[in-house]
Amino acid sequence: MNKLSNQRAWWLVVPVVILVAFNALIPLMTVVNYSVQETFGNNQFFWHGVGWFEQVLKSERFHASLLRQLAFTAMILLIEVPLGIAVALCMPRKGPWVSVCLVLMALPLLIPWNVVGAMWNIFALPDIGLLGKMINSLGIDYNFTQQPVAAWATTVLMDVWHWTSLVVLLTYAGLCSIPDAYYQAARIDGASGWAVFRFIQLPKLNRVLTIAILLRFMDSFMIYTEPFVLTGGGPGNTTTFLSIDLVKIALGQFDLGPAAAMSLIYFMVVLLVCWIFYTAMMRNEGQS
Amino acid sequence: MAIELKGVSKKVGADTHIYPTDLRLEKDAFNVLLGTTLSGKTTLLRLMAGLEPPGEGEIWFNGENVTGVPVQKRSVSMVYQQFINYPNFTVYDNIASPLKVQGVSKSETRQRVEAMASLLKLDPFLGRHPAELSGGQQQRIAIARALVKNSSLVLLDEPLANLDYKLREELRDEMPKLFADSGATVVYTTTEPLEALMLGGFTATLHEGAVSQYGPTTSCYRNPLNLISAKVFSDPPINTAQVDKRGDRFYLDDTVSWIAPAKIRGLRDQTYTVGFRPHHLTLNDQKSETVQIQGTVEVAELSGSETVVHLNVRGNNWVSESSGIHPFDIGQQTDVYMQIAHCMYFDQDQMMVQN
Asked: Do A185 and B101 touch (CB under 8 A)?
């Protein structure tokens, strides 16, 4: 083997290195920098070790918002995934209604997040909003700006309205890719509707559902804009999810150290879950 | 008695997929439906299976009118061009799945699945999933699933089309043997005349939604009823030309003529269509009776041991197939020899005249 001593090819990777540096490395290292130091302004820094991490991990406030976040994400997944599959199964597979259904489904996805928040805020106001007024006129005491349960219900409903479509569209695409021959074969075998779903459709949807769940997990776990506009994290702290809490600490209280430590922990949690999904997906890939 | 179509037709919207068809397939035999893509093979299979109701007509099976009977109440199994298996079942569970629906006992299931697996050479793979096996093995699973049911009608819709050459040949050789002992009536569709010949049994030729002939495969090949059957059952395509019969000779034009075979010498003088297969138009003079004609080479394909030449002969596009390697230039003039003993003659209704 002849080894060439010419090293000029390294210059070719410089643009990528610069891009990645400004895009990811430098911002991330800034956060890491803040998370291990104490600062009182004037660009003066003092080494603080893992103190901020200890403080965040032990703080009840962090535990509470993490718990709220997990509960919210779990609720979202439990509602949106089965609902999305059900809607996709009901959608027509051919005919003129296909495009109508697809456009209707895609509509919520096209609305900007802060607009969704504002829309639902007005929609659900107990005195003037269509939804809020209606619920109250049914005799149910409903005010999402004051009742924690009502605030949660409204936030979850808003997210379901906004994002179930994503699961529907992904599932629908998965369903459309199943050859007709599978359904014929199932009919010849005398398989019931449930058996067709359980043994043909669900296994064939395996991959696309993994992606749908992953996307919905990440989005809902990092949700900020919609609840911020809708409830502002209230009443009290009841809908203060992780990212809302993070912004409060970093910008509201200007506690840069704890905020940076919390960001990194937050980042690690998301990364961990993504890694678990990725591994699971790769294992499935080997099977089917 | 076997499956019988009585005046069955199928229209989808304004398109006629199947023209009124009467067809009675041989019982307990290997039946091949031969036709090009879109000739209606799959539609006929779906009608036989009961996956689709016929537009008109009746379908009888073993002396029973089954026209309106839903597919799951019939004794039918089907194998498709795509390899259809349950993706998250093991090979064993896949083969056992029809028995499970039928409510067969566990011990009998095991016995039947294992017998089927060894017949189809799947025994080493019973614990694996379909996706871990080759295309040929996946199709073997589907065939095993169709066979294990013991249905009286097995439908195979181009089962070898998605396999590569080697696997296709291997499975095709086994095919008639696999079904010989099953006692089932088998219907097998294909687009390839050669495949039909190799499978043997009986063949129905299908063209644009109509069955043009049905009978034992070799006799369909040797004695096509009409020009359409002859065309469907020939690959490369059959050569044809208009010829005039005057007295006891056929005239291609004023310079090329040959004597009519004794049996048809008495036919009326008129225009006929002559048809002969490419391997009866050779580049070298055969010992049999031939007619020598000159043609212009348009394409020459050389394979390992054969030469296929596309020629323009007096305005007719003909294909010649000869053994040996004969290189040609495009546009070159060459003599070809037509074996008149193998010529078929069709009248103006495209029906074959008695030969």
From this structure: no
Tokens at A280, concatenated: 């699971």
- Does residue B129 sit at the A interface (CB-CB below 8 Å)? yes
Q: Total domain count for chain A?
A: 1
Tell me, what CATH number does A90's domain have?
1.10.3720.10
Does B51 reach chain A within 8 Å, measured CB to CB? yes
Task: Give the pLDDT confidence of A116-173 residue by residue, as tens digits.
Answer: 999 999 998 888 889 988 888 888 888 888 888 899 999 999 999 999 999 999 999 9
A185 vs B71: CB contact, 8 Å cut-off?
Answer: no
Please check whether residue A167 is in contact with residue A85, taking contact to mean a CB–CB distance below 8 angstroms: yes
Cβ A188–B78 below 8 Å, yes or no?
A: yes
B281-282 vs B76-79, strand pairing mode: unpaired
Q: Given 3.60.20.10, 3.30.930.10, 3.40.50.150, 2.40.50.140, which CATH number is that of B239-346?
A: 2.40.50.140
- What is the per-residue pLDDT across B257-301, written as a single tens digit (0 to 9) for each? 888 888 888 888 889 999 999 999 988 877 778 888 999 999 888
Range of the domain at A169: 60-287
Contact between residue B264 and residue B345 where contact means Cβ atoms under 8 Å apart: yes
Does the domain spanning B3-232 belong to CATH 3.40.50.300?
yes
Looking at CA atoms only, how far is residue B143 from chain A in angstroms?
12
Inter-residue contact B183 to B206 (CB < 8 Å) = no
pLDDT value, residue B20: 87
Pick the residue from chain A with its C-alpha nearest to B154: A188
Residue of B nearest to A192 (CA): B101
Q: Do B84 and A181 touch (CB under 8 A)?
A: yes
Please write the tens of the pLDDT for every residue from A246-255: 888 888 787 8
Q: Which two tokens stand for residue B340?
A: 């008149």
Closest partner residue to A182 among B84, B98, B131, by Cβ?
B84
Question: Does A277 reside within a domain?
Answer: yes
Query: Amino acid letter at B156?
Result: L
Phi, psi of B287 (to 5 degrees): -70, -25
Assigned domain for A211 exists? yes
Q: Which residues of B fall within a CB distance of 8 Å from A204? A: 87
When scoring B84, B94, B158 by the number of chain A Cβ atoms within 10 A, the one with the most, hence best to mutate, is B84
Cα–Cα distance for residue pair B200/B182, rounded to 1 Å: 17
B-chain residues near A285 (CB < 8 A): none
Three-class secondary structure assignment of B155-176: EEECCCCCCCHHHHHHHHHHHH
- Domain residue ranges in chain B: 3-232, 239-346
Residue A228 lies in a domain: yes
